[in-house]
TrEMBL record:
GTP binds at N74, K75, M76, D77, N144, V145, G146, K147, S148, S149, G196. InterPro entries: GTP-bd (IPR006073), GTP-bd_ortho_bundle_sf (IPR023179), GTPase_MTG1 (IPR016478), P-loop_NTPase (IPR027417). GO terms for molecular function: GTP binding; GTPase activity. Associates with the mitochondrial ribosome large subunit; the association occurs in a GTP-dependent manner. This is Mitochondrial GTPase 1. One of its GO terms (cellular component) is mitochondrial inner membrane. It comes from Heterocephalus glaber. The lineage of its organism: Eukaryota, Metazoa, Chordata, Craniata, Vertebrata. GO terms for biological process: mitochondrial translation.
């Protein structure tokens, strides 16, 4: 069990046990192009911060079953990997036997990818064509997980050359399947970058909120303040209280209005609002809640509030094979 300083949570009577989900229309958060299904795969790719269960993994599994595939869990620097063995065990239970954790910013574990792909293709009778020594790999995954970064990172490692795929901090940067991009000379390997895809239907509103927290959807479509509230709820549930110190709050809180107000004041994010009074208009300075929410989300996504495993609940009761209960 993780311990946390008593003083941090003394001010809070009780954490919220659940997040209010009613009245939210998850279908409107995700643009149509993300539901399109490509016709073939080889590489697959999701963020390490959350497990692929909530991506309606079944949908991908059906197609993946036809081709050799490798699951790349990127952004490992942002994920809490203290239960890495449980994660691997859980994924193996889902039929995902080949998994690599990566960090494309620091090129961590990137060198393992090409040998693994070569081994997988070599051991697959259907795709092992002795007369054709070229490999063509498709990178598939949810938006904004670092598919383009992975291609650039592979090129840095194997070709010592610069970037070929456009990278950006928002989802939807890659809009169409690119032409083949070379990532290795020996073996000769090409990758196809693809726009982010999601299951045609998002399982639940909470699933949508988790995806949104990982930056899979443009924040304003869900609402920055709603997302900031879900982030606060999640941080408190995971007993991650770095936000208190980071923003100089008096203590941990489950009240998003109070937290955003303090952030706005500390960061001097205020705005002038016209208020109609009996004697005319008066300009009033108010905390800018949206700007504070944006800063809160950005800080979390840059890892400053600590590494997180959003789907920790899924791992409960999932023990690696070599650990006795
Ligand atoms: N912390 C961290 N950030 C990363 C990592 N890999 C990529 N990023 C960042 O994640 C953001 C999205 O990266 P992209 O490579 O554009 O992601 P994508 O999956 O191609 O995005 P779409 O084309 O929108 O689907 C960028 O700001 C990257 O710098 C990583 O391993 N760790």
């Amino acid at each position: 069990m993780r311990l946390f300083p008593r003083s941090l949570c003394a001010a809070v009577a009780a954490w919220r046990e659940c997040f209010p989900l009613h009245g939210r229309d998850v279908a409107r958060w995700f643009p149509g192009h993300m539901a399109k299904v490509p016709s073939f795969y080889l590489g697959s790719h999701v963020t390490a911060t959350a497990l692929p269960d909530w991506l309606a993994w079944q949908w991908q599994k059906e197609t993946l079953g036809l081709k050799p595939h490798l699951l790349v869990l990127n952004k490992m620097d942002l994920a809490d990997l203290t239960e890495q063995q449980k994660i691997i065990h859980h994924l193996e239970g889902e039929g995902l036997k080949n998994t690599i954790f990566t960090n494309c910013i620091k090129d961590e574990n990137i060198k393992q990818i090409i040998p693994k792909i070569t081994e997988l293709v070599g051991s697959s009778y259907r795709y092992h064509r002795a007369e054709n020594m070229e490999y063509c790999i498709m990178v598939v995954g949810i938006p904004n997980v670092g598919k383009s970064s992975l291609i650039n990172s592979l090129r840095r490692q194997h070709l010592k050359t610069g970037k070929a795929a456009r990278v950006g901090g928002e989802p939807g940067i890659t809009r169409a399947v690119t032409s083949r991009i070379q990532v290795s000379e020996r073996p000769l390997m090409f990758l196809l970058d693809t726009p982010g895809v999601l299951a045609p239907q998002i399982g639940s509103v909470e699933t949508g909120l988790k995806l949104a927290l990982c930056g899979t959807v443009l924040d304003h479509l869900v609402g920055e303040e709603t997302m900031a509230d879900y982030l606060l709820y999640t941080l408190n549930r995971h007993r991650m209280f770095k936000y208190v110190q980071h923003y100089g709050l008096n203590g941990a809180s489950d009240d998003i209005e109070c937290v955003l107000k303090t952030i706005a004041v500390r960061l001097r994010k205020t705005r002038k609002v016209k208020v109609l009074t009996g004697t005319g208009d008066v300009n009033v300075v108010q905390p800018n809640y949206s700007a504070a929410a944006r800063d809160f989300l950005r800080t979390f996504r840059s890892g400053l509030l600590g590494p997180m495993m959003i789907d920790r609940d899924i791992l409960q009761g999932c023990l690696p094979a070599d650990i006795d209960p």
